[in-house]
UniProtKB/TrEMBL annotation:
<dbReference type="InterPro" id="IPR028600">
    <property type="entry name" value="NUBP2/Cfd1_eukaryotes"/>
</dbReference>
<dbReference type="GO" id="GO:0005524">
    <property type="term" value="F:ATP binding"/>
</dbReference>
<feature type="binding site">
    <location>
        <begin position="15"/>
        <end position="22"/>
    </location>
    <ligand>
        <name>ATP</name>
    </ligand>
</feature>
<dbReference type="InterPro" id="IPR027417">
    <property type="entry name" value="P-loop_NTPase"/>
</dbReference>
<keyword id="KW-0479">Metal-binding</keyword>
<dbReference type="GO" id="GO:0046872">
    <property type="term" value="F:metal ion binding"/>
</dbReference>
<comment type="similarity">
    <text>Belongs to the Mrp/NBP35 ATP-binding proteins family. NUBP2/CFD1 subfamily.</text>
</comment>
<dbReference type="Pfam" id="PF10609">
    <property type="entry name" value="ParA"/>
</dbReference>
<keyword id="KW-0411">Iron-sulfur</keyword>
<dbReference type="GO" id="GO:0005829">
    <property type="term" value="C:cytosol"/>
</dbReference>
<dbReference type="GO" id="GO:0016887">
    <property type="term" value="F:ATP hydrolysis activity"/>
</dbReference>
<feature type="region of interest" description="Disordered">
    <location>
        <begin position="79"/>
        <end position="104"/>
    </location>
</feature>
<keyword id="KW-0067">ATP-binding</keyword>
<keyword id="KW-0963">Cytoplasm</keyword>
<feature type="binding site">
    <location>
        <position position="233"/>
    </location>
    <ligand>
        <name>[4Fe-4S] cluster</name>
    </ligand>
</feature>
<keyword id="KW-0547">Nucleotide-binding</keyword>
<dbReference type="GO" id="GO:0140663">
    <property type="term" value="F:ATP-dependent FeS chaperone activity"/>
</dbReference>
Amino acid sequence: MPLTGVKNIILVLSGKGGVGKSSVTLQLALALSLQGKSVGILDIDLTGPSMPRLVGREDAKITQTPDGWLPVLVHEAEPPRETTDDEHEDREAQGQGQGQTGRGSLRCMSLGFLLRDRGDAVIWRGPKKTAMIRQFLTDVYWGETDYLLVDTPPGTSDEHIALAEQLLTVATTTRGSPSSTTGLPFLAGAVLVTTPQAIATSDVRKEINFCVKTRIPALGVIENMSGYTCPCCGEVTNLFSSGGGQIMAQETGVPFLGSVPVDVKFGELVEGKMVVDDEDSEDENGNNEHTQLQGGEQVDSRPLVERYQDCWSLPRFEAFAKTLLSKIEGTETSS
């Protein structure tokens, strides 16, 4: 059965290119993983697959098994870690919960992993794109996956039509537990990404119309690149405009999830340029977590999900993740 083991599917859409759909998809996936959910990312931006670079696995290759293609592992799941008394006191002082949630696994599938060279251009007509998307939705073995996030290209073209048609065949839009009802994954809906500028929000309005016509629920709007976060203090400055995504969400009746300023730390993270000082090069057990580079600099070599926890944008995406979990699973989550 297609998508065996996948429980919920979330699309990440935008009618405009360059608004940060892939970075939003990755950060949502990391935030859901930190909530203890096993997560998969399916990158169907066939002509511009950026997810292999974002997750730092450009050299990874897809393995073929009797069950289908195996997605690339970004990080393993980890059980909850016991906290010390000092850490418990720190969490209470910061107003955080007493319990510690384990980390879910994260896996990724992208056409970029199937190319012989990462610089190869994908020059395909519509029918071949459609066939590739259908194969991604039927021939990838995800295993037990709580959430599958689908990173899409801009617009409402062949890829989107093929995706919607196929998902409405292999998934259900009826809320409930897949294992106890139809056995199909639940197509939860779409998260729409925009920037504050009117030229972007006008295109996203068309994407909302696409959701209405294809009967895919709109879970909410994220206004990306809304201001700039200082890498030193975290203060947000509105360099251009802000609030356009929220106004569009109100006018179209779609929930507004929140805004995300430009985070330099996250940019350095996905570019592999997070350099650390010598005094920060050892973990709590005295182990060196970084690789020595020329000139005496050291680069952080921890897993992506651990490095992401140092980024200013994490609390915002944690809030988005909790809101989506509340909407989809119908559970009350604490902020």
